[in-house]
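are you around this afternoon, could really use another pair of eyes. what follows is a protein written twice so to speak, once as letters and once as structure tokens for the fold. i want to understand how the tokens follow from the sequence so walk me through it. anything you notice is useful, everything is just below.
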Amino acid sequence: MLAVSAAAFLPLQGALAPSLVVALKTATLVLGGLITYFAASAYRRTGARPIGALAVGFGLVTLGALLAGAAQQAFGFDTDAVLIIESALSMAGFGVILYSLYAEW
């Protein structure tokens, strides 16, 4: 099992950390946006409701990352509020994704 010490991340707590977080959030938004776009395109092409729900789920997860980043960077929300925003939308998105994969359509 891979064990990583918290001390391994201590160098990231300096001036580099905010830039790294913005870069990672940007990559998450780009990838999540592409997944959502392609899933929505597949839904429009096929009309399959499970694929439409899948697109909504990925859209919610991506929206959580976007709103959390905006809340912290643009509006100065504290870390706890940002984590709640992102976690709530991620949970909702993953719930919709699970429903799209499991439900009898």
Summary: The mean pLDDT is 90. Helices lie at 16-46, 49-73, 79-102. DSSP finds three helices and no strands in the chain.
